[in-house]
Amino acid sequence: MAAPHAPTILVAEDETAIADTVLYALRSEGFAAEHVLLGGEVAAKVRSGKVDLVVLDVGLPDITGFEVCRQLRTFSDLPVIFLTARDGEIDRVVGLELGADDYVVKPFSPRELVARVRARLRRRAQPASTEWQALGRFAIDREGRRIRFAGQALDLTRYEYGLLEALLQRPGAVLSRAQLMDRVWSDALDSGDRTVDTHIKTLRAKLREMDVTAEDAIRTHRGLGYSIDVGAG
């Protein structure tokens, strides 16, 4: 039985056997767990405010998990873990780029899934900080995991934040793709260099939304990696 005030995990999975396994594993570790069969049911559950994390199958029968995640990210930053039989890099990149926090491929270990759920919730529970460090056009609150650019808060996914934070730790220094993968995707070892490039592209787009002169904020050094120019504050 779940403990009082236990985090509630919503599992969106149309294969009953898999759903039952996941629900049992979660409840055995003290979580509350709910189950839906259709992607169209997820948003309403999340809007109720009674869900703490979503385990989301990509291949749902009505709409894809990717589309569900896209819907969620229009109004919620709730942690999302994809659970899927798709193991191609492009699917991982798409899922993470849509704002998912993790990607677990079937067949999987229920114990590992629960550990990933616990890790995401632990990170989310970290208290926010009001300590901002000014870095030229940027300001960063590392404890609160927030970054501002040109005086405005950036709406970043977990990996976008990690990538930008890694660059801001050493303004002007060139970091290779391997270094960025090691610092930002250390818990997603099956991701490749293209993941870094994809996230750099979306970061540049978000910076340009804040300031049209931000084209050169993140610089590409061909064959070497990326660096950041923080500019003048």
Give a quick set of tags describing it.
233 residues; alpha/beta; five-stranded parallel sheet
Helix-strand layout with pairing:
Blueprint: E1 8-12, H1 16-28, E2 32-36, H2 42-47, E3 53-57, H3 65-72, E4 80-84, H4 89-97, E5 102-105, H5 110-125, E6 133-135, E7 138-141, E8 146-149, E9 152-153, H6 158-168, H7 177-184, H8 193-210, E10 218-221, E11 225-228
Parallel strand pairs: 1-2, 1-3, 3-4, 4-5
Antiparallel strand pairs: 6-7, 7-8, 8-9, 10-11
Question: Can you walk me through this structure?
Answer:
This is Two-component system response regulator CreB. The modification 4-aspartylphosphate is found at residue 57. Residues 127-230 bind DNA. InterPro entries: CheY-like_superfamily, OmpR/PhoB-type_DNA-bd, Sig_transdc_resp-reg_C-effctor, Sig_transdc_resp-reg_receiver, WalR-like, WH-like_DNA-bd_sf. The chain is 38% helix and 19% strand. The chain has 233 residues and is an alpha/beta fold. The strands form 3 sheets. Strands 2-1-3-4-5 form a 5-stranded parallel sheet, sandwiched between helices. Strands 6-7-8-9 form a 4-stranded antiparallel sheet, covered by helices on one side. The chain has a two-stranded antiparallel ribbon with strand order 10-11. A hairpin with a 2-residue loop joins β6 (133-135) and β7 (138-141).
Compact overview of the structure:
By secondary structure, the chain is α/β, with parallel strands linked by helices.
Low-confidence stretches: none
Mean pLDDT: 85
Written as H for each helix and E for each strand, in order along the chain, the element string is EHEHEHEHEHEEEEHHHEE
Report Rg: 19 Å
Structural class of the helices, strands and pairings?
Answer: alpha/beta
Give the CA-based shape: elongated
Largest sheet, in brief, is: 5 strands, parallel
Instruction: Work out the helix count.
Output: 8
Termini separation: 53 Å
Strand content: 15-25%
The number of E-state strands comes to: 11
Helix content class: 25-40%
Strand line-up in the sheet with most strands: 2-1-3-4-5
